[in-house]
TrEMBL record:
<feature type="domain" description="CN hydrolase">
    <location>
        <begin position="4"/>
        <end position="260"/>
    </location>
</feature>
<protein>
    <submittedName>
        <fullName>Acyltransferase</fullName>
    </submittedName>
</protein>
<dbReference type="InterPro" id="IPR003010">
    <property type="entry name" value="C-N_Hydrolase"/>
</dbReference>
<keyword id="KW-0808">Transferase</keyword>
<dbReference type="Pfam" id="PF00795">
    <property type="entry name" value="CN_hydrolase"/>
</dbReference>
<keyword id="KW-0012">Acyltransferase</keyword>
<dbReference type="GO" id="GO:0016746">
    <property type="term" value="F:acyltransferase activity"/>
</dbReference>
<comment type="similarity">
    <text>Belongs to the carbon-nitrogen hydrolase superfamily. NIT1/NIT2 family.</text>
</comment>
<dbReference type="InterPro" id="IPR001110">
    <property type="entry name" value="UPF0012_CS"/>
</dbReference>
<dbReference type="InterPro" id="IPR036526">
    <property type="entry name" value="C-N_Hydrolase_sf"/>
</dbReference>
Amino acid sequence: MSGLRVCAVQYKLADIESFDQFAFQARHYVRNASEYGVQAILFPEFFTTQLLSIGDEAGAALTIDKLPEFTDAYIALFQSLAAEYRVHIVGGTHVVALADGKLNNTAHLFYPDGRVEKQAKLHMTPTEREEWNMSPGDGLQVFDTEFGTIAMLTCYDIEFPEIVRMARAKGADIIFCPSCTDDRHGFYRVRYCCHARAVENQVYIVTTGTVGSLRKVDFMRANYGQAAVISPNDIPFPPAGIMTEGVINDDMLVVADVNVGLLHDVRAAGSVTTWRDRRVDLYGDWS
């Protein structure tokens, strides 16, 4: 199957009082997306930090080390949504606890048949490392789906050309990039790098970020986000490489049709053939 309709969610963060409120909002987006006939849905990085705003008995926000306590409920929710609506869901990222006590910021892929795959974020920002005691993942995977091979690279990951080149060498045609940025500087770093990685590797990038505000949760009080589906810059695609994009900081979905077959066409005989023309004699390869 070469055609795929994808949806990216500009998830609006707002303080909540229960997991049920979080589940209601997530279901709203998935149900809305299903009405457009999508096969894959992307949620943003760190969108489950909304659960921290539920707070403790004193009304203070929960701390980041409490977020893994919601992991089982989060997985059960998105497994059920993927099955009910027969879609693949990249459930943004959720903070999970490892056996050794370390915290990983982990993207989850939920298949309609109940399978769940994971990819921990590989590059830690200073805030993740120093304020939230996050540890990086230790390996890159790609994932086979009925519509092609995908990778999940989270926010800061997309700013490192090598890791996206590795994903393409492993067969990925679509990179899902959940993101969370608090200002325009961070947003545009991620956005411009998504375009660069699409050109370099002749892949699609599906990206989105959080919008809104968690007034009680440290480091989540400001969000600047916009979803987009980004293509290589060549004749079969839009000149600017933008299949679709949202309205910055609005609560909304964006939807686009992508065709993996077109990627194979431009890799073979496009205006430029950046993947084929790599000088691996000079700078190595990861295949």
